[in-house]
Amino acid sequence: MIIQPGKLLAQINTPDDLKNFSKDQLVQICDELRQFIVDNVSVYGGHFGASLGVVELTVALHYVLNTPDDQLVWDVGHQAYGHKILTGRKEKFHTNRIYGGMSGFPKRKESEYDTFGVGHSSTSISAALGMAVASKYKGLSRKQHVAVIGDGSMTGGMAFEAMNHAGVSDTNMIIILNDNCMSIDPNVGALKDYLTDITTSHTYNKVKDEVWNILGKFSKFGSSAQEIISKVEGAIKSAVLKQSNLFESLNLRYFGPVDGHDVHHLVEVLSDLRDIPGPKILHCVTVKGKGYAPAENGNKTTWHAPGLFDKVTGEIYKKTPTKPQAPKYQDVFGHTLVELAKENDKIMGITPAMPSGSSLNIMMKEMPDRAFDVGIAEQHAVTFSAGLATQGLIPFCNIYSSFMQRAYDQVVHDVALQNLQVVFCLDRAGFAGADGPTHHGAYDIAYFRCIPNMVVTAPMDEEELRNLMFTATKFEGPFSIRYPRGQGVMPEWRTPMREIPIGQGRIIKEGEDVAILTIGHIGNYAVEATEMLVKEGLNPAHYDMRFVKPLDESLLHEVFGKFKKVITVEDGCLMGGFGSAVVEWMMDNGYQAQVKRLGIPDRIVEHGEQIELHRECGFDPEGIAEAVRELAVVTIR
Ligand SMILES: Cc1ncc(C[n+]2csc(CCOP(=O)(O)OP(=O)(O)O)c2C)c(N)n1
Question: What family is this protein classified in (predicted)?
Answer without folding.
Answer: Belongs to the transketolase family. DXPS subfamily.
